[in-house]
Amino acid sequence: MNKQELLKDYKKQDDKLCLAQVLDKIEISSKKDKIEYTDFLDMYQVALVENFLRKIQFQHFKLYGGYEEAERKILMIYPERYDTIMLQKNYDKILKVVRIQLPEEEKGKYSHRNYLGGIVKLGLKREKVGDILVGEEGADIVTVNDFAEVLETQLPSLTRFENASIQIEEIQNIRNLEIKVEEISIIVPSLRLDNIVSDLARTSRSKASEIISQERVFVNGQNETKNSKQVKCGDIITIRGKGRFVVKEFTGTTRSGRTVVLVEKYV
Fold it and tell me: How many beta carbons lie within 10 A of that of residue 89, not counting itself?
């Protein structure tokens, strides 16, 4: 089956472009008998690509972002002769960690937004950067191998990092940094997704519906477009452009029957 036939059911041009690149990687990997990989995919693209590869019954791939819970991942296409061990041996050839170690007086000063903002300010390509794991000491930035030196060289030019120690580490040395969260309570008329998104994004319910229809909302890593989906305790909700949230507990109801929800927001 040719490329056009495989992509005919996809209406969005961006989706077609993404999946066409995936098919190109499969073809190149087969011809050269070596691993091919993409830039980092966001959560929407990860779900799109994974569903597509399952649909065409292609099995020789790995979506990986440096650790199993990563949100942003690269797609690795590997030859049929590869087993799991052979694939894992290539992780450190493909992915690296750029570690920012803050000086004592600046520890705990910066959030995820500050690190990502610095990368954007430098005009660097976002698709070359995976997750940014932030802790009190600094941050570990997951990136592809050929981009690690670019980050190491350019990040010190930012005032906020001019006194920081910046070095490249192997991907297996990524730190299990404690994620910063803050607890918030929201009060919703029901546990429908559009109600939850409305409060989390601090917008109207109609605007929340727009955000959902724009495929910017993910529940437990899967894109969700149904306003009526019922949110459960333990669900991880990601709203692109707004943040990531964990539904921790339903703490009670108001006199009017609205539900009080305790949420942890990643900061």
Answer: 10
> What pTM does this model have?
0.81
Burial class of residue 36 (count of CB atoms within 10 Å of its CB; 0-12, 13-18, 19+): buried
Give the CA diameter of the chain: 67
**What class is the 93-173 domain?**
alpha beta
Residue position matching structure tokens 């802790």: 135
Question: What would you report as the CA-atom Rg of the chain, rounded to the nearest whole angstrom?
Answer: 20
Other Cβ atoms within 10 Å of 39 Cβ, number: 17
181-266 fold? 3.10.290
Q: For residue range 58-104, what is the model confidence (pLDDT) as tens digits?
A: 999 999 999 988 989 999 999 999 998 999 999 999 999 999 999 99
State which amino acid sits at residue 78. Answer: Y
Distances (CA, A) of 208 to 190, 199, 203: 14, 9, 7
Region of 124 (left: φ > 0; alpha: ψ -120 to 50; beta: rest) is beta
Burial class (CB in 10 A: 0-12, 13-18, 19+), 242: middle
Any idea where the domains of the chain sit in the sequence?
11-89, 93-173, 181-266
Candidates 264, 255, 253, 265; CA nearest to 188 is 253
Architecture field, domain 11-89: 2-Layer Sandwich (3.30)
Which residues, 6+ apart, have CB-to-CB distance to 159 below 8 Å? none
